[in-house]
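From: lab user (bench 3)
To: helpdesk
Subject: output format question, protein + magnesium ion

Hello, I'm new to running complex predictions and I'm not sure whether the block I got back is the full result or only part of it. Here's what I submitted:
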Amino acid sequence: METLVMKFGGTSVADVERIRRVARIVAEQKRAGHRVAVVVSAMAGKTNELIAWTDEVSAGATVKADCDDEYDVVVSSAEQVSAGLLAMTLRSIGVPARSWLGWQLPIRTDDAHGKARIESVNPDKLIETFNAGEVPVIAGFQGIDKHARLATLGRGAGDLSAVAVAAALKADRCDIYTDQPGVFTTDPRLVAKARMLDKVSYEEMLEMASLGAKVLQARSVELAMTQGVRVRVLSSFVEPGTPNPGTIVCDEEEIVEKHVVSGVAYSRDEAKVTLLGVEDHPGIAAEIFGALADANINVDMIVQSEARQPGRQNIVFTAPDREAARAQDVLAADRAKIGYEDIHIRRDVAKVSVIGIGMRSHVGVARTMFAALAAKGINIEAIATSEIKISVLIDAQYTELAVRALHTAYGLDAA
Ligand code: ADP
Ligand code: ASP
Ligand code: MG
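Helpdesk reply: Thanks, we reran it on our side. This is the complete output you should expect:
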């Protein structure tokens, strides 16, 4: 008997018809004799709707919505609906089921509201549910902090809840059901020639997810990697019994066919912040990025260059679009200490990245990227590299063009 965690994302539970199909998929695994725990996201669009309400009521407030613990109270509510509906639907087709909210298990988190980290998952109630012959249906994306306040885990974190539950149950696998048949070389909604991967390494998947491939949430991949949870991504849009192999996320050693570049990712949720005429002396970068870190703002690409005026530097960095205004406030409050002349924010930028473990042992990967972009007349505004990825910041209007050009340039197009 295998223990499986089955996670269904928002599009998979978007309406009652889809919830019925999900129930049939769960029932099939239960009838095959497996111990099955289910994790669900909110019905598609519901989280956005709730976030918009929190934005509306907090407009103009000094504390921004996603730093406020009441934000979590509001936005976590949508998962309660889908968990209850799926448990009811399972019961209606003869599969005993019981819903569990994060606080009821509990899933304990820190108190970074809006993007809390999971500290522990107590599996006791899940095991009791299994022992009673029932399928536990867990509301994803939520937990409870040490002050007994609800906490949400960040956008797309239903995946993280699923992997954390799988780790706590020592599950044989965590199956992430979504609206695509697996992980592709790039977003199949953007590039029709994207190819599905049979297997992808944790490391590449982590980079792809961190760089914008929404199919898995980055922290869930990180947790799967550190806890050794085997993850599979597959479609919830097919009836049980139809072939649905999906993509396995696994250790690099398991992958036979290695490509120099395995995937292309993009993110439009970026903002480019430019600090002009920053005083140039030791400790300035620590001051700027320390202040941003204290405000829990994730900074990504950083470029420093000499300014025209002697003794001054320009510093460019990217941050999530949603956090750009807050970054500006933080830096404005710290202006006297940093001593910059001006600050600009550009929101119409995109980050496009190529990822592959083969980069470690191949030269010329960057040249191919830059040449492919140049051939399309796309200007590069910032560059960031790591051992297995190269990212560039470009004008957002060229995102699609850039992703397609790179997909072709690295020989990833499907025949
Ligand atoms: P869910 O609601 O199931 O959590 P998401 O919308 O979070 O689903 O993620 C699935 C979406 O991720 C797909 O519809 C697809 O457009 C997008 N995506 C981006 N990059 C990739 C990729 N490399 N492979 C598959 N899907 C991708
Ligand atoms: N409902 C949450 C979101 O939209 C979590 C998830 O879907 O995974 O971000
Ligand atoms: Mg998702």
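A quick orientation on your result: The chain has a mean pLDDT of 95. Let us know if anything else is unclear.
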